[in-house]
Amino acid sequence: MQDDPGFSIVELLIAMAVTLCVMASTLSLVSDVQRGFASEGERADMQQRLRVATDAVSGDLLMAGAGAFQGTRAGPLDFFFASVLPGRQGASGADVAGTFKADTVTVLYVPPAGAAQTTIRQSLSPQSGSVSLNIDAGCPPNDSVCGFAAGMDVIVYDDTASYDTFRVTSAQAGSLQLQHTMLDGTQSYAPGAKIVEAASHTYYLKAAAATDTYQLMHYDGVSSDVAVVDHVVGLTFEYFGEPYPPVLLKPVTEPTGPWTTYGPKPPARDVRSTAYPAGENCAFQLDAAGLQHVPRLGFLGDGTMTLVKLIETQLTDGPWCPDGTSPHRYDADLLRIRKIGVTLRVEAALTALRGPAGVLFSHAGTSRAASRWLPDQEVRFEVAPRNLNFGR
Amino acid sequence: MDRGFSLIEVLVAMMVTTVATVALAQLSVISMRANYVARATTFTTVLAAQKMEQLRALAWASDPSGAEMSDTSTDTTVVPERSSGGTGLSPSPADALVTNTPGYCDFLDANGRTLGGGSTPPANTAYIRRWAIEPLQVPGNDALAFQVRVTPIATRVTGPHGRTPSEARLFGIKARKGT
Q1: What are the backbone dihedrals phi and psi of residue A347, each rounded to the nearest 5 degrees, phi first?
Q2: What are the DSSP calls for A311-359, one per residue?
Q3: Cα dihedral value A246, A251, A253, A254, nearest 10
Q4: How far is it, in rounded angstroms, from Cα A376 to Cα B152?
Q5: Residue B129 — pLDDT band, cuts 50, 70, 90?
Q6: In 10 A of CB A329, how many CB atoms?
Q7: ipTM above 0.90, yes or no
């Protein structure tokens, strides 16, 4: 056996020192990478949630107010009724008339491509039942129900600032079976009222602390009430409105509109269509002499054209459309809305990435190490619905 | 006869391992950076769209008598907008997209909240948003071309055509409406 002297003490010390240095730097690297590994995926996820939420909300807000495009009473919905409501509307869980909720919005619009639209042949009361249709010019050829089909959502409206939403349950031979999808109403629609395919979209925040559920929800006004994005902890809508009152552009007896700069046209002087006196509606009244239509709404702001932020009291104090007695009443100032501000806030899904509640976190997590925190992410954006930008 | 590794051999082996590990660690750095750029791009796009919506909602119409109603004074650098002290839809100077021109630029924090306009960004500025408004040379001269450019302040890297990686540029046209 050969004599093996092994390492000298100097060699051993150098080797240990080198090993320690390498180990130390590797470990510090590993801990950084591990932290990144734990949080980067969630960070990307948060961004994705914010993006999806922004896209979903802005896409529908942008369309608000788009109306029928042929036949009588064509044009943006806000020439007839308010298409943006600060509350929930629909068949289930609807807010009572005149509600203002900062975290809820409902928009109505006629879908852009080939929406079915015509007028009704018989009077229609606001409850489930059947209605027969006129086959107006513009209906698809050889179609006895003018393009309507089962499962479609429709709005019926007239010139009184009233509207009612329905879902078509069946369609055949010039008539539709309708299921009423609003709170019970009182308005009865005369033959000739418009019926048009339309979508209702309600976005709201679901905040259930007990189950730690925070979601951006979407309700279609009838049956589908689903979460769009999880871990949304903040949702606020702000409304910016036209400071000028509406103006009557032509005699209300003219057959085609628009009759006003915005809002529903008043009835002729001697006609009473709502609880307002004859010749008046929620947007217009008669002057002292009872001869001329003048706006019921006033000026807001400082006399310039700049949009004014509409606050809760302005949107819940009347004047009411179609009138104060209607179970579907809405504030006439909602007709002023030209721009909607949206603030969205999302949080990290993992409690291990959230710190104590405060400025950074809406809901506390379990992490005490600030280096691992993934603060809530917030974004604010505005949408000017294209069909509500009258004169802008 | 096996005498094991010499110290030199061990050192070389460790060097190789270290280099490999550091190179791998670079990967995670790259992925974090990509994540950051993705977030900045999302934000700049939303912020650019937001300014576009503000400009679209300014009055640019003819009133019932046919007189032009043009908003040239609204200050869109604050929320809610102020009715005076701003530039509204007035045409911008030629270099409005590249320099901070008061009235055609505002500063935003990391959450996209506006910090106001001016020419010098406040300390907590994360994004600079500039916009240009140009009358289109069409009959009647009544359409406007908008350009909005949002640049994250942290990225100093400049790519081809002077564009930073996560900046957003949007272009839009607004026509005068009758009432």
Answers
A1: -120, 165
A2: PGGGGTS--EES-TT-TT-EEGGGGGEEEEEEEEEE--S-GGG--SSSS
A3: -100
A4: 19
A5: very high
A6: 21
A7: no
Which chain B residues have a beta carbon less than 8 Å from that of A261?
64, 179
Kindly determine whether residue B83 and residue A261, on different chains, have CB atoms separated by under 8 Å.
no
Calculate how close chain A gets to B102, using CA atoms only, in Å. Answer: 19
Q: Which of A18, A309, A389 sits opposite B80 (nearest CB)?
A: A309
State the pLDDT at residue A202: 97
Say which DSSP state B170 is in: E
Cβ distance B82 to A306 less than 8 Å, yes or no, reads yes
The sign of the dihedral angle between the CA atoms of A223, A229, A234, A237 is negative
Where b means 16+ CB within 10 Å and e means fewer, A300-320 reads beeebbbbbbbeeebbbebbb
Burial class of residue B125, CB neighbours in 10 A (0-12, 13-18, 19+): middle
Q: Which residue of B has its CA nearest to A3?
A: B3
DSSP B30-57: HHHHHHHHHHHHHHHHHHHHHHHHHHHT
Q: Does A43 touch chain B (CB under 8 A)?
A: yes
More confident residue, B26 or A224: A224
Contact between chains at B64 and A249 (C-beta distance less than 8 A): yes
Tell me the mean pLDDT in the region A136-149.
Answer: 89
**pTM of model > 0.95:** no
- The pair phi, psi for residue B74, each rounded to 5°, is -65, 135
Burial classification of residue A136, based on how many CB atoms lie within 10 Å of its CB (0-12 exposed, 13-18 middle, 19 or more buried): middle
Angle subtended by helix axes A9-63 and B7-56, to nearest 10: 20
Residue B102, preceding peptide bond in cis (omega within 30° of 0): no
How far A25 CA sits from the closest chain B CA (Å)? 9
A:234-293 residues touching chain B, CB 8 A cutoff: 238, 240, 247, 249, 261
Give the pair of three-digit tokens for residue A315.
């949107």
Q: Tell which residue, B71, B104, B105, has the closest CA to residue B89.
A: B71
Contact A286, A270 (CB under 8 A): no
CA dist A295 and B72 (Å) reads 26
Whether A43 sits inside 8 A of B39 (CB atoms) is: yes
Alpha-carbon distances, residue A151 vs A115, A129, A133, B95 (angstroms): 14, 15, 17, 54
The H or E element containing residue A52 is helix A9-63
Q: Cα B119 to the chain's mean position, in Å?
A: 16
Nearest chain A Cα distance for residue B4, angstroms: 10
Distance of CA B1 to the CA centre of its chain: 70
